[in-house]
């Protein structure tokens, strides 16, 4: 295995490991954020319930109504998705990064450029890696979104059924009180159906066929600019930090510096692309989250138009504070763990190569 290939594999494995750890630690915040993003509320209703807008239900509300398990709905497919997503992304990112650095070095030999990779090149590298990642892993994230919002959707359905029972009783001239109470009691006794990964996949397929697994792909593909912006900020800042560390006589940057650089990079990327994330979550969630047709979306453009028309521009920033905390902390943790794992994998690969060389030498002797 060549040095560049080993480097790509090490980065892929490190990215997957770091992503899993970050996902487990911050998953409750991610669940709450997804529910906040997919909560529909009209302009009129939000003025009547300002306390619920735009943040939506928090961790404490989910724990009280669903227990701790509610915060980890869809965790298993999410971990699979995180490992696959981070592994694929970092592998291809490193492959294209190595290529970009080789091109920059070749240009320097020819007297063009200083041998460093520019910001535009970093953006292109991150965008290509991100696009490949999105196309390959989008079905997993559709299932995760469904599982995170399933209880929320079921609650909305129950609320609509309750409203229908009360409305029918109010419109009846001589309502049967006993029947009315029995209907409400029966409704209250109903429990949410078990909802696992297979059930979610079956539901998506029945609704839209194979295409359903790529719902939200357009805003998600556009959102590859998020990691592009993130890595542009990160790589540029890391390069400066390394130069600063070398001037101070240090061999490398510290874990704390990597953590802070990762947090800064993710903060800038999240704030600039958050509206697209909300649209993506709306498209991937179960449409029965709202009984009103004006809150059901046939595609990306339809979702954007209806959100602006019925909920206003603030709807594109629902739950952003939760997302900033979750994504910034997760990214900072991921970068910190990834850099340490890359060092570890590099050492292990180096030792493995030395062992194989020594072994081959003994065989030849």
TrEMBL record:
GO annotation terms (biological process): nucleotide transport; transmembrane transport
Keywords per UniProt: Membrane, Repeat, Transmembrane, Transmembrane helix, Transport
What GO terms fall under cellular component here? membrane
Transmembrane residue ranges: 117-136, 255-277, 324-349
Tell where it localizes: Membrane
Segments carrying the region annotation (Disordered) are: 33-56
Indicate how the chain sits in the lipid bilayer: Multi-pass membrane protein
Keyword set includes Repeat: yes
Task: Enumerate the Solcar repeat regions by residue range.
Answer: 6-99, 117-240, 253-344
Tell me, what's a Pfam family for it? Mito_carr
Which domain of life, per UniProt? Answer: Eukaryota
Q: Which PANTHER family match?
A: MITOCHONDRIAL NICOTINAMIDE ADENINE DINUCLEOTIDE TRANSPORTER 1-RELATED-RELATED
Family, as annotated = Belongs to the mitochondrial carrier (TC 2.A.29) family.
What's the protein called, per UniProt?
Uncharacterized protein
- The source organism is Spirodela intermedia (Intermediate duckweed)
């Amino acid at each position: 295995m060549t040095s560049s290939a080993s480097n790509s594999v090490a980065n892929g494995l490190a990215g997957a490991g770091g992503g899993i750890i970050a996902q487990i630690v911050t998953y409750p915040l991610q669940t709450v954020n997804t529910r906040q993003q997919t909560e529909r509320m009209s302009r009129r209703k939000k003025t009547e319930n300002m306390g619920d807008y735009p943040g939506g239900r928090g961790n404490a509300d989910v724990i009280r109504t669903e227990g701790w398990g509610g915060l980890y709905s869809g965790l298993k497919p999410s971990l699979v998705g995180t490992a696959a997503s981070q592994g694929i992304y970092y592998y291809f990112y490193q492959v294209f990064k190595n290529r970009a650095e080789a091109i920059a070095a070749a240009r320097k030999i020819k007297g063009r450029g200083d041998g460093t990779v520019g910001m535009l090149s970093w953006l292109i590298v991150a965008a290509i890696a991100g696009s490949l990642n999105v196309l390959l892993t989008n079905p997993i994230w559709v299932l995760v979104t469904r599982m995170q919002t399933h209880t929320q959707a079921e609650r909305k359905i129950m609320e609509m059924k309750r409203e229908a029972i009360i409305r029918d009783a109010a419109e009846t001239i001589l309502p049967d009180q006993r029947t009315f109470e029995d209907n409400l009691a029966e409704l209250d006794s109903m429990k949410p159906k078990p909802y696992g990964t297979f059930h979610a996949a079956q539901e998506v397929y029945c609704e839209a066929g194979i295409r359903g697994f790529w719902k939200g792909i357009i805003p998600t593909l556009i959102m590859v600019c998020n990691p592009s912006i993130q890595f542009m900020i990160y790589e540029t800042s890391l390069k400066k930090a390394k130069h600063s560390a070398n001037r101070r006589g240090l061999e490398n940057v510290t874990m704390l510096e990597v953590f802070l650089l990762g947090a800064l990079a993710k903060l800038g990327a999240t704030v600039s692309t958050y509206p697209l994330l909300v649209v993506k979550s709306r498209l991937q969630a179960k449409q029965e989250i709202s009984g009103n047709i004006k809150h059901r979306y046939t595609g990306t453009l339809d979702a954007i138009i209806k959100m602006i028309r019925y909920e206003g521009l603030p709807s594109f920033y629902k739950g952003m504070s939760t997302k900033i905390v979750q994504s910034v902390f997760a990214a900072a943790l991921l970068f910190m763990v990834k850099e340490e794992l890359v060092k570890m994998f590099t050492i292990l690969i180096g030792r493995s190569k030395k062992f194989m060389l020594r072994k081959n030498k003994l065989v030849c002797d």
